[in-house]
């Protein structure tokens, strides 16, 4: 398999963490790309030019992180990343919404330097703040195993701290922050921290 990725994308990170958790990391050739550079091989794999993109051994091109995770659960060993029922998936959805809003701000800044103070930017920051608060409330009941809720929560917190270091995100989600700190040496956490 080949994974098109970049080292800062939170969508890529949840896939990379799942690959490590499922013991599949060694079976994947990870190619770090600049999603803005329009590399021909990358665009052949995904004409939308978005990461992550996974090309399977039989040549299927899988785009979008959650679709890739579904495939990894189907082909990989336990633990299942998408297990846990509605409560777990709900918590994961809140965390994904948090980092999706953060990515929207980063992309919005590329076209509008004052994006943060505009209507859409303010809404995205509100989504991040309220999302972390809600995630912290939901996390204890879904944080027992290291599936998508744990992966997405750690990814959300780390991405906000990485992209917006001038804000105190950890105080909005002390339960998630403590869980993240307890997992700091876990290979899937340690080896995928965003760098840029």
Descriptive account of the structure:
The chain has 196 residues and is α+β, with helices and mostly antiparallel strands. The radius of gyration is 16 Å and the shape is globular. Helix 1 (10-21) crosses helix 6 (148-163) and helix 5 runs antiparallel to helix 6. The mean pLDDT is 92. It has helices at 10-21, 40-45, 65-75, 85-111, 119-142, 148-163, 174-182, 187-190, and strands at residues 2-5, 29-32, 53-55, 61-63. The protein has a four-stranded mixed β-sheet, covered by helices on one side. The protein folds into two domains: 2-75, Glutaredoxin, CATH 3.40.30; 85-186, Glutathione S-transferase Yfyf (Class Pi), Chain A, domain 2, CATH 1.20.1050.10. Helix 1 (10-21) links the parallel strand 1 and strand 2. Residues 1-80 form the GST N-terminal domain. This is GST N-terminal domain-containing protein.
Kindly state the mean pLDDT as a whole number? Answer: 92
Based on helices, strands and strand pairing, what is the structural class? alpha+beta
Instruction: List SSEs in N-to-C order.
Output: EHEHEEHHHHHH
CATH class of the largest domain: Mainly Alpha
Largest sheet: 4 strands, mixed
Any low-confidence stretches, pLDDT <50, length ≥5? Answer: none
Percent strand equals 5-15%
CATH topology-level fold name of the largest domain: Glutathione S-transferase Yfyf (Class Pi), Chain A, domain 2
What is the molecular shape?
Answer: globular
Distance between the termini: 25 Å
> DSSP helix count?
8
Across the major sheet, the strand order is 2-1-3-4
Give Rg in angstroms: 16 Å
The number of strands is 4
Helix content: 55-70%
CATH architecture of the largest domain: Up-down Bundle
